[in-house]
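Duplicate of earlier report; EvC ciliary complex subunit 1 input re-posted below.
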Amino acid sequence: KDDTQNLLKNLESNAQTPLETGSPSRRRKREVQMSKDKEAVDECEPPSNSNITAFALKAKVIYPINQKFRPLADGSSNPSLHENLKQAVLPHQPVEASPSSSLGSLSQGEKDDCSSSSSVHSATSDDRFLSRTFLRVNAFPEVLACESVDIDLCIYSLHLKDLLHLDTALRQEKHMMFIQIFKMCLLDLLPKKKSDDELYQKILSKQENDLEDLEKGLQVKLSNTEMSGAGDSEYITLADVEKKEREYSEQLIDNMEAFWKQMANIQHFLVDQFKCSSSKARQLMMTLTERMIAAEGLLCDSQELQALDALERTMGRAHMAKVIEFLKLQVQEETRCRLAAISRGLELLASEGKLSGRQKEELLTQQHKAFWQEAEHFSREFVQRGKDLVKASLAHQVEGTAKLTLAQEEERRSFLAEAQPTADPETFLKAFHEVLERQRLMQCDLEEEENVRATEAVVALCQKAMRRRRDTGKEAV
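Output:
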């Protein structure tokens, strides 16, 4: 306390610094603020700390961090601090520093230690996380019939598959819209030609074949990536998933670049192969590019909305999977509760002298073995019957999807046959996009309906087995 009072006196005697004398208004503001701060602290701090608090407040206000002269521990100033500020300090070099700078260096050292330890811990946690293994699933009903799996990771892997399917659907829509836009541009370029003209069809067929080859090449690459490192194992690690997703992204980006490169080659193709004038080919490319940019905008908006829909479906799947998991855990919990009730009953009989200790232990062992055998039998039966339900559900879903796909293809053909794209290209593109988007949503709804149906079937299977086990348990008791 005495040292603090001496420091405070030295500070008051040396309070007139160059910064303050050159700026009286700033000094008055600081004094007013300092008095207010001191009064506020005096009200809430005990008297024994008032001098220390006053010193801290004065040091903070009178000696800002960027000032040349700073107070040392004895109250004096060290002008060399400012001169040597930019010099590097060696690890064992003795330096004179203010209390604030010492505290800063200590806190910085603590931060460095914490940062290094947290980095090591983070790296270890990441490695451990990426090595987690979970079941390889291709459809949600497969998750329902699994036993002892990481449900969350299975659901998340299905979500990544949904996003990949969405990307495929949007890419196919982009190709279909490109063909329709190219048709309109050709009709503008060749007004005397009809849509069934040989030259017209030859030009159009070339682009359709190029797009088909582009899509086939991409699907081969995606399939090879999916099969790489899979082997015969039914399980996969998060590191494998991360690696595959990175490769998927690179392949999709390469495909996107190849598509736009193919579109850029149309102008040379028209000039070289069909002797079209450069001006007309250039005008076609400008119109084609402008309309394709508009189509990309529609697809981008659709992608954002349907990605949110995919996330909502994933949350619903997680909920349904947790319901099934809860029912399976309930079977084990009921088994433990029954065993606990039997144990208490045998304890009571033994305390009344109706059972010997040996008889009690034998009966308890027999009941324990019988109950857990029944629980294991339930688990095996559930897995087997659940797999049968899943197989039937997936077969039903494939059949329904095939029928819906055929109906949607017929709907697209009817729409394109009745539409007149050259009359109003913008309205035509929006209407065609709405048809394709509605068809995608119908596909998703069909899949979700089948998922709900499969979940309800598995829930009924669980409840039926649990009722049978309860009846068997009552007879045993």
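The chain has a mean pLDDT of 75.

Merging into the original ticket.
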